[in-house]
Amino acid sequence: MQTHDLFYLLDTLDIVAAVTILVLWQGFDILAEHPPNRYPSTTILMARYRRAWMCEFVTRDPRIFDAQVMSSLRQGASFFASACMIAVGGAVALIGNADLLSGVAQDLTLESAPTIVWEIKLMFMSIFAINAFLKFVWSHRLFGYCAVLMAAVPNDISNPIANPRAAKAAEINITAARSYTRGLRAIYFGIASAAWLINAEFLLAAALFTTLVVIRREFASESRAVLLSDTDDDVNTDT
Fold this sequence. Notes:
With 239 residues, this protein is mostly helical. The protein has one domain. The chain is 76% helix and 0% strand. Helix 5 packs antiparallel against helix 6 (162-193).
């Protein structure tokens, strides 16, 4: 098969569906991290609480609780990085045995396509897994940086470098969390991309459904409503 013929193995709808899921994936990352000022996302709200955490951290003694939280965050990033590595390995193994996959797919879709088409679709899925792996690894690293910065914050609150170092730790923590969240979204859309193994229509439907799910979680979830509420300023007057 000639190289220039590979493009014609995918019809127009396949290309449109593949481009659509990529645009929705990257576009939503931008929207979640740069939402309208009047309607902050859950990501932005959590960033505010991370800064508040570091403000409280300066005055907390002992700081065992903060160390435990940081350890939990690093473990979460490490777990997902390991899972993504396994997913990438599985995708590579499937690419090497695409003939078997094409037989199963043809039973589901009643369509026949060259093995190279299934390999292209598997490689497309791998893009999301590889991206997620890199995001989680970097997140794990940044949480480590944050832990070191927190350890460098003096115990003496009157020390002039205490608050500036805590502020630096907050910003590194926010950056780490941003990378972690991007990794999770890559997993969401990576799972949706598996629908392409059936056909392009399923890929479009999965991409739109996944986008609606992540939009709800960032902008219309109950957790966001809790974060946005002003209960921190309420005083309980019940007797």
